[in-house]
Amino acid sequence: MTTTSGQSGPVAFQGADAPTDALLTACVHCGLCLSSCPTYRETGLEAASPRGRIWLMKAVHDGRIGLESEVFQHQMSACLNCRACEAVCPSGVQYGTILEASRAQIEQARTERRLPEHPAPVRLVRRLVFDALFRSMALFRAAARLLWLYQRSGLQWLARRSGVLRLLRLADTEQLLPAMSDRFTVADGQILPALGSQRATVGLLAGCIMSTAFSEVHAATIRVLRRNGCRVVLVPDQGCCGALHAHSGDLAGARALARRNIAAFAGLDLDAIIVNAAGCGSALKEYGHLLHGDPAWADRAAQFSARVCDVSEYLDRLGLVTEGLRSLPLRITYQEPCHLAHAQRISAAPRRLLRAIPGLELHEMHESALCCGSAGIYNITQPAMAAQLGARKLDHAQATGAEVIATANPGCHLQLAGGLRQRGSTMRVRHIVELLDEAYS
């Protein structure tokens, strides 16, 4: 093969970020991961399993195939990166690390023209989203406010009724857009005192999607933390966590955002950095790995990551204040976000918090930890598989007879709520802290 740069032969892994032989050979192909892999369970294809994808990565590493392989590229993008395989792997394979490294190799080869570039519309979207909107919270909030105007002014209703979205083949994608909150959460240095005796001082990650589309979850989180004796600091100059950049092969972008957040929280006397979005929490806890090759930032990144806690993890560790919790007579089921259950290994704490609410009945769904199909922007890039997994998850949730699905990640929330709307269901999706907040009030 001859690439756009004139290179002959397979397009190889290159550079410091390439998956190493040690990481790739940690997999012994035992197959214990197969039953936990959503794409393998849906397709039955070996190439769509963790060990199959690792075999493809090793084949590129060894020069047997190249980055130009259509099968390789497809399987790297078709993986949800849910990391359920990591949770059951007896060999400790760092699957998420080598998957993101492999995706980054594809994007690097496109940039260096060793592979054909993305089509122009894809390049434009990537530059707009990754290089502009997610790099500047001011720009991100401006775009979110325009989306809010579109949703509230009647333009959305008109666009949907007129059929223009279907004509432009945007109808399905537009349905996935989050409803923007009326008020955004702006991290401006505000300090909110604990209610009652102070037990801790914490900083809250405001983030991007959470601060604009789920601002009410932030408000509930702050109220619950304060009720539990936490002084809450809205640290200024923070931004997006970089998770979507890392998942999409833009490691340079992810590192730039990581450095920004580390610098923002540096020097503050905080007992913990609280996150209420599973994907963001997983990304922040892995800053130490992301920046391990940067001598100027490696130690700072590791120290930062050591302070990061999911809100359910922290409240459970601190000891939930149960005084003042009123009865909340609800029948609920819990949907485990992949990056909470598998990447962070937090599964029991959310359930303990839910069971602490008087009157609330927790009914476990079948396959609660199987991916719902959201996986960042997977439901946009791989809509068919995402729809299959979303339907499977909702079938299990509805079989419990629950009124509410509790979860802890915005992507899961949007995927589940969208599926319920399509089914005409009255079932609702709520964040765990929203249920706690309601019980406290």
Tags for this entry?
441 residues; alpha/beta; Fumarate Reductase Iron-sulfur Protein, Chain B, domain 2; Glutathione S-transferase Yfyf (Class Pi), Chain A, domain 2; 4 domains; 4-stranded parallel β-sheet; 25 helices; 9 strands; 51% helix; globular
- What about the largest sheet? 5 strands, mixed
- Return Rg in Å: 22 Å
In the CATH hierarchy, what is the architecture of the largest domain at level 2? Up-down Bundle
Secondary structure: number of strands = 9
Helix content: 40-55%
Individual helix count: 25
CATH class of the largest domain: Mainly Alpha
Determine the N-to-C terminus distance: 66 Å
Low-confidence stretches: 1-5
CATH topology of the largest domain: Glutathione S-transferase Yfyf (Class Pi), Chain A, domain 2
Helix/strand-derived class? alpha/beta
What is the total domain count? Answer: 4
Strand order of the largest sheet: 1-3-2-4-5
Give the CA-based shape. globular
Tell me the strand percentage band. Answer: 5-15%
- Please tell me the overall pLDDT: 94
